[in-house]
Amino acid sequence: MALIRLFCSLGMLIKLTLAVDHVPVLLWSTHSSLWNSEATLHEGHIISKQELHMLLQPVFTQDSKNLVLFLQDTLSIDDFTRNSESYENEKPFHNIQELLHSSSSSLVLSAVDSQAISHLLDYLQESVDWKLTNLDEVEISKLEVDTSKPNIFVVKLQPIKRLNGISTAKAFTENDKIIGRLTTILQEQGIQFSAIYTAMRPSSVPTRPDVVLESRRQLMAVEATVTVPDPPLNVTNGTNTCILFYASNFSLTANNSIHVDLTNLTFVSRKVNFTSSVCSATNTTLSLDYTGLLDGLNSLEIRFLMTNKFYTGSARNWFTLDSVEIVHDNQKTAKFNVSIISAPAEYSFHCQLVGTSSLYGAKLIPANNEAKSWDVYLSEFQIQGFNIKSNLFSYASDCTSFFSPGIWMGLVTSIVLLWILTYGIHMIMQLTTNSRFDDPKGQSLSVPQTE
């Protein structure tokens, strides 16, 4: 509850800066007196890159330099106020609350410039000669730390699926368990460490900052304001729009170490060159060219290749996204084949999650060895490469089929029950009564064998 009140009060302080692109950052350490009460002076405004670097200086001055960086895809201060308390059987942020309270020193930054976070890992590597270790859930349980030199452990938490309140709470709970498991292992080994929990970009959680949040019941009863998503990327062939492309999160990971978030560059600041895109009635290529991203990743080109064909089976034209290509620094090309991304030519295509994971609704399948070193993640993916009218997406054909597992279970159960009912009615209709009855006072009834 203390963490909830803290974030609620901070939310009131920054109501004038909610429109700025920022994320919360939580820091805690087993070292004493890393951050004192003067740090609270930073609450209420956006922490710039330089201010964040100053606040991180105490981490670099410790004798035992071990740093854990927990990176999430999206996070907002409103995620804490909405999910800090138990949600049914889930307990989001339980371990994080305990760590903030029990650590020798901790610091809560409600709003940090997301540009500072995007370059945080590079800054940390430049500040100290760390031994960089990328961890996943399997590697955490087998972790062995060499304390002879500084260590930095980067844990990229699973993306938050914001389909509804339960799925969001479950995702936060799973990430919280990963954080608790790793910190417990380090503490059991007697290792002094500092930890940072943040995200690459803010989440879109609608809120009204002028309402004082006192409990979960009141919070969920507050009328949410409507958030307007960023406009889709619009590609023209000179006069008319020929390609529309949108994703609420568009990010790549190379070799499990280099993470690039292209969302803001593509849909907000529009620092992407798409002049190489090609449009025609049968073949369309969306080319997204980025430059000056990160050290070791100077240029990056991503191509979406689409075709429009007539299929005799359905007697109509369908458009398909055939492949996705990633060209790194004008060298090797990583090619992915695409599954189930197709729609009638007059429609657009939409899918909640698209990427290289087998758990996503539409999967990108590596077609060569170079593609195996890339991970692609797109959420709320929507694309249309043909028959665009009024610069708007047409009706969307979704990757989720109409007959979901729940619908199939209901249909099968209904059919079985209907068969049982039909069989019972049929048996009742076959029942007949005797045409003769015994008279106990008269002669006993005799039925000949011939009847």
UniProtKB/TrEMBL annotation:
Positions of transmembrane segments: 407-426
GO biological process entries: regulation of cellular pH
A GO molecular function held by the record: ATPase activator activity
Family assignment from sequence similarity: Belongs to the vacuolar ATPase subunit S1 family.
Top-rank taxon: Eukaryota
Protein name: V-type proton ATPase subunit S1-like
Localization, UniProt: Membrane
Residues spanning the signal sequence: 1-19
Organism: Pelodiscus sinensis
Residues covered by the V-type proton ATPase subunit S1 luminal domain: 240-386
Keywords from the named record: Membrane, Signal, Transmembrane, Transmembrane helix
